[in-house]
Amino acid sequence: MKALLLVAHGSRRKQSNEEVAILAEKLKSQCSAQYTIIHAAFLELSAPLIPDGIKVCVDDGATSIIVLPYFLNSGRHVIEDIPSMINETRALYPDIEINVAPHIGASPLIMDLLIASANTTVTNMA
User: Fold this and answer.
1) Contact, 69 vs 101, CB < 8 A?
2) Cβ of 78: how many Cβ atoms within 10 Å?
3) Are the C-beta atoms of residues 6 and 70 closer than 8 Å to each other?
4) Is the dihedral of CA 102, 103, 108, 109 positive or negative?
5) Do the domain assignments include residue 125?
6) Per-residue confidence (pLDDT) for residue 119, from 0 to 100
7) Is 124 part of any domain?
8) What's 62's domain CATH number?
9) Which of 111, 34, 21 is nearest to 70 (CA)?
10) Is 88 within a domain?
């Protein structure tokens, strides 16, 4: 079975982490035909951390996992930290294929999203 693990930074702010969990739930309803298993995990500051998220996917029956970094920039977390954590975790599951998708900011669709967002008027940021 194919799994998608949405990976965000993590926050001390509970609501921020809940937004990521809600996004993972929305992904389940949008792409359940492509990914049988969909979960969220975090780099730091919140549970589950990336290795635990991979374990949950494996426990749910995943034979292939796509890790999707929900990051805008290719900073240290995207270039070093996430790949390092995944490589360490791969050793625990040699029979599971674990691949990393490009971070969200690298998507060619990001320009359309930025323009659409800029064209949306926010009247109250409170």
Assistant:
1) yes
2) 21
3) yes
4) positive
5) no
6) 87
7) no
8) 3.40.50.1400
9) 21
10) yes
User: Rounded distance, CA 105 to CA 102, Å?
Assistant: 8
> Tokens 């374990």 identify what position?
55
- Partner residues linked to 118 by β-bridges: none
- Mean pLDDT in each 10-residue stretch from start to end of the chain (126 residues)? 98 97 96 95 98 98 98 96 96 97 96 90 61
Question: Strand pairing of 2-8 and 37-42?
Answer: parallel
The residue with tokens 């298993």 is 37
On the CB side of 44, how many CA atoms lie within 13 Å of its CA?
Answer: 5
Answer yes or no: is 66 within a domain: yes
Domains: count for the chain: 1
19: part of which helix (H) or strand (E)?
helix 14-31
Are 96 and 64 in contact, with CB atoms under 8 Å apart?
A: yes
Q: Quote the domain boundaries for residue 55.
A: 2-118
